[in-house]
Write a structure and sequence with these properties.
Length: 131
Amino acid sequence: MFPARIWREMPQRYRLEAAVCKKCGKRYYPPRLVCAECGCRKFDTYVLPEEATIKTFTIIRTPASQFSDIAPYAIAIVAFADGLQIMGQVVDCDLDKLKIGQKVRLEFRRIQTHDTHGVLSYSYKFVPKWY
């Protein structure tokens, strides 16, 4: 990700903001300009909840070159209580113990460092809640 793009995405990546349509209430992450349900162009901003549930996941054992230092790693689609689903990396866990239906906590973390310029990219990751 290049520096200019990082700055454009700051509200959603750095404050974990999503959008909710003012007309029909559909939630979007990342935010959209037009609601896919009703065509409305007016949205309210809301902060993503801190807890979600794993709906499905996969373990990446042969990653793209920029992620080879963290392989193997898990990517999951998680669902929040309000129905919004997003995808992200699952960290700080034993990959063999991950399961569908498991609760995870949304955390703000470093994603990568741009090799050429040394720009740090931050976003969200999911950390399992062990009971």
